[in-house]
Amino acid sequence: MHRRGVGLAAFDRKQTTKRFEELSNSISQSQVTHLNNQLAQFRTALTHFASTHRDKIKSDPSFRHAFQQMCTSIGVDPLAGPRKGGWWAELLGLGDWQYELGVQIVDVCVSTRERNGGLIEMAELIRMVSKLRGVSGGSITEDDIVQSIKTLEPLGAGYQVVDISGRKMVRSVVKELDDDQTTILGLAQEHGGRVVEDMLIQRRQWSRERARTALENMLLRDGLCWLDDQDEECGRAYWVTSAMKWEA
Amino acid sequence: MLTTMALSTHTTSTGFLLPSIHSAPPFFTQQPNPATEAIVIEQWTKLILSYARHRNLFYLRVEDAETGGDWDEVLRNDRINRRLPPTHLSSILAGMVAKNVATYEPAKQTRSVLLYWRLPEEWAEVLHQWASTTGQMNTIMTFYEITDPPVNSPLTNIPLPLLRKAITILAKSNRAQIIAIADGEGL
């Protein structure tokens, strides 16, 4: 995986020389030497810091978050580098940690995909991943999931965090949610998962054809909802599984 | 305005814990999307076998979805006003037979099944165990003595077709034999 940009991890020995060659055109040699020394010192300090706090980074989400913020602000990408995962990752074992989390996210999304059509609520995902990890996994936050999903991008599997009516969801199918589906999902969330044609007509001013088509597509084509044909009010109601909450 | 209901488990009056999916209104509808329906059938299968084991029930008929009776606690949910329609139950039964966790009994019809909440092979072991612990090895018994013993056993009320299957399995390993006797069958 390639990350561009100025990152401390990007300055490995081979590249360093080349970069300094470019720099030396505009900066004098002594300044360059000075810079090099500073970077080396900084790198040592950061290495020391990382190994001292490795366990805390892995187990404490707020510390982990603060650490990642710090890395970002000084232009260090813990996952970048010439070697897979970068020397950072190797130092911290963070690459493994991220990788493991990524695998767990994929695991949960794939195993619940038939049930929820490839769209899972963030809270539910966190709950299930935490279950997979068990007590020794430490606690996982939404931020961890978001970061991990970024690393899944190269897989091209379409993992994305989407926002639906203020609720964060994770989408794991390639298909884009069209606007109508997003509207329906939003409504479903407001009503415990249940949506009927009349709701879309009355609250969103849709035509009946539009409402019917969108709902039927979600049901038949995309498997994003379940049908209830004994609904007392409307006879036919659609239940969006990702907005329903049920115990295991 | 429909009040939103948190889907939760529920313990029935016979002490059976219904899973939370049983509180979901769409669970009772046969789903037009085949992938979704596969999940629904899988969940109903688990539920039915579990309940049968709990209540020691062996038969399930399509008509049980309509008439009141032993299966009401599972085939209906009055708290959400839903019931499993006969057509859907029929489809679920077909699924269970295909998976060999039930068999159409009597044969050549599709309205009634015998449930294998314990497989015939497992019943064979139960029979063998029971016979040896009650000191009845190497004796001749009638079927009646097995299904209605003086002291309740795990085999009490086991339907004859299932008992025969279990005995046939034992016979294959030479642990039992069915002997035809004039006034009743025995082994």
Automatic annotation (TrEMBL), chain A:
This protein's superkingdom?
Answer: Eukaryota
User: Pfam families, alphabetically?
Assistant: EAP30
GO cellular component term, pick one:
ESCRT II complex
| GO biological process terms on file | protein transport to vacuole involved in ubiquitin-dependent protein catabolic process via the multivesicular body sorting pathway
> Which family does the similarity line name?
Belongs to the SNF8 family.
Q: Which PANTHER family match?
A: EAP30 SUBUNIT OF ELL COMPLEX, VACUOLAR-SORTING PROTEIN SNF8
UniProt protein name:
EAP30/Vps36 family-domain-containing protein
Organism lineage reads as: Eukaryota, Fungi, Dikarya, Basidiomycota, Agaricomycotina
TrEMBL record, chain B:
Instruction: Kindly list the GO CC terms recorded for this protein.
Output: ESCRT II complex
Question: Which PANTHER family does the UniProt record give?
Answer: VACUOLAR PROTEIN SORTING-ASSOCIATED PROTEIN VPS25, VACUOLAR PROTEIN-SORTING-ASSOCIATED PROTEIN 25
Protein's recorded name: ESCRT-II complex vps25 subunit
Which UniProt keywords are given for this protein, alphabetically ordered? Answer: Protein transport, Transport
Q: Does the keyword Transport apply?
A: yes
Cite the InterPro entries for this sequence. Answer: ESCRT-II_cplx_Vps25-sub (IPR008570), ESCRT-II_cplx_Vps25-sub_N (IPR014041), WH-like_DNA-bd_sf (IPR036388), WH_DNA-bd_sf (IPR036390)
Q: What is the top-level taxon of the source organism?
A: Eukaryota
Note one Pfam family from the annotation.
ESCRT-II
Species, as recorded: Ephemerocybe angulata
Q: Which family does it belong to?
A: Belongs to the VPS25 family.
Extract the Gene3D superfamilies matched here: Winged helix' DNA-binding domain. Chain C. Domain 1, Winged helix-like DNA-binding domain superfamily/Winged helix DNA-binding domain
Annotated GO molecular function terms are: protein homodimerization activity; structural molecule activity
* A GO biological process held by the record: protein transport to vacuole involved in ubiquitin-dependent protein catabolic process via the multivesicular body sorting pathway
Whether Nucleotide-binding counts among this entry's keywords is no
